[in-house]
Amino acid sequence: MTGTPPPAPVHPVAGRAAGAPTVLLVHGMSDTWRSWGPLAALLPTGWRSVAAELPWKAGTDHGWRRRGTPGAWLAATVRAMAEPPDVVVGHSLGANAVLEMIATEPDVTPRGAMLIAPFYCPPDLPVTWAVHERAQANFVQIIDEGLRNRLGERLAGLDAETLASMRDIMVDRIGPVGFTTLFDHFTATAGLPLHAVTVPTMVLTGGRDPSLDGPRATALRAQMPDAHVVVEPEFHHFCHLDQATEVARHVAGFVEKVCPDSVIRGGTP
């Protein structure tokens, strides 16, 4: 059963100069709001960056899905903010929460929305067992990529068997309910009224990210012809972490485009 969920906590990530834009950052499944720190540090000095701590954070039991969809949770969070964000930026499930919100919550209208590594189900795609199996394989691939990213320099000291065991533990920790939640939301994107979206939107995805491959990116472009879809060939699913400098450049350019009257103080550290 779903309804109107409560707002999620919002944490400050970077400071603010008078008149500068406010950017709300939305994490993906089994991630943390703190993961936005390195990217926020690369945005122009003075911008106010805040990060939402959504209930699909690391360690969740996925009970949140009974209280509302990702978009409903995010919309409740934005409505409760004392100062509404100018731009909302989401990654992975967070990006899809942003997409759902701007498509289905007409009273929540930020000046811009940016989706980093979202997933999308084309309306004409039959949802077969083969599609389910592919989604599950992509799910494991993305978890493996996220693990490698978190390990950083420690990765060099691990053998393949140990790494695979660690990945399997993470897959089990998220569990079938976590995967089913993602798959349900993936298939639900086919029915979103994307034609009704009026918020300026940018989609940033990678050529090495299975969540929004070529045909799906093309389908999303067709459903949202006014959206600016950028595919960076070398980006992975976690590009906001391992290609943070390049992603921050895209974020800064988009924010400056949709907030031209904001006072941008300082530069990129």
Automatic annotation (TrEMBL):
It comes from the Bacteria. Residues 23-249 form the AB hydrolase-1 domain. The keyword Kinase does not apply. SUPFAM superfamilies: alpha/beta-Hydrolases. GO terms for cellular component: membrane. It holds the Pfam family Abhydrolase_6. PANTHER family: HYDROLASE, PUTATIVE (AFU_ORTHOLOGUE AFUA_2G14860)-RELATED, MONOACYLGLYCEROL LIPASE. This is Alpha/beta hydrolase. It comes from Micromonospora globbae.
